């Protein structure tokens, strides 16, 4: 258990940045799935495609300084800041993956208004 705590206090690494890229790809995929005209989502709050776009923009803005640090060869954040960013990106990726799975498992039933998907 102690090893896991030490791991999360390490500075951000290239694997963390690859998780960000993966999350951005999943958000784009989810956006594309949500904008299928057959789905017929209404533009009322919360509008899922808009949330995916805004989340992507904010994610890029938050992580951009850390990309610059790593490109310049400096360590970037460590301690609690790195731990928080690492937890945040993993949670976001998990939620995006689960949302994509809803579309995958729902297939055609997702287009039915009474469907639980």
From TrEMBL:
InterPro entries, per the entry: Adaptor_Cbl, Adaptor_Cbl_N_dom_sf, Adaptor_Cbl_N_hlx, Cbl_PTB
Catalytic activity: S-ubiquitinyl-[E2 ubiquitin-conjugating enzyme]-L-cysteine + [acceptor protein]-L-lysine = [E2 ubiquitin-conjugating enzyme]-L-cysteine + N(6)-ubiquitinyl-[acceptor protein]-L-lysine
Functional description taken from the UniProt entry: E3 ubiquitin-protein ligase which accepts ubiquitin from specific E2 ubiquitin-conjugating enzymes, and transfers it to substrates, generally promoting their degradation by the proteasome.
Pfam families: Cbl_N
Domain Cbl-PTB as annotated: residue spans: 10-117
Enzyme class: transferase
GO cellular component: a single term: plasma membrane
UniProt organism field: Tetraodon nigroviridis (Spotted green pufferfish)
Keywords carried by this UniProt record: Calcium, Metal-binding, Transferase, Ubl conjugation pathway, Zinc, Zinc-finger
Protein name: E3 ubiquitin-protein ligase CBL
Entry EC number(s): 2.3.2.27
Pathway the protein contributes to: Protein modification; protein ubiquitination
Single GO BP term: protein ubiquitination
Domain comment, as recorded: The N-terminus is composed of the phosphotyrosine binding (PTB) domain, a short linker region and the RING-type zinc finger. The PTB domain, which is also called TKB (tyrosine kinase binding) domain, is composed of three different subdomains: a four-helix bundle (4H), a calcium-binding EF hand and a divergent SH2 domain.
Gene Ontology MF, one: ubiquitin protein ligase activity
């Amino acid at each position: 258990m102690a090893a896991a705590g030490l791991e999360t206090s390490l500075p951000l690494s290239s694997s963390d940045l690859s998780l960000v890229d993966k999350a951005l790809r999943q958000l784009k995929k989810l956006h594309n799935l949500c904008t299928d005209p057959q789905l017929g989502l209404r533009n009322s709050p919360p509008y899922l495609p808009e949330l995916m776009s805004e989340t992507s923009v904010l994610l890029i803005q938050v992580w951009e300084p850390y990309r610059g640090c790593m490109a310049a060869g400096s360590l970037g954040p460590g301690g609690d800041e790195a731990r928080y960013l690492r937890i945040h990106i993993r949670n976001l990726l998990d939620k995006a993956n689960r949302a994509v799975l809803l579309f995958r498992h729902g297939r055609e039933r997702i287009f039915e208004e009474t469907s639980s998907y």
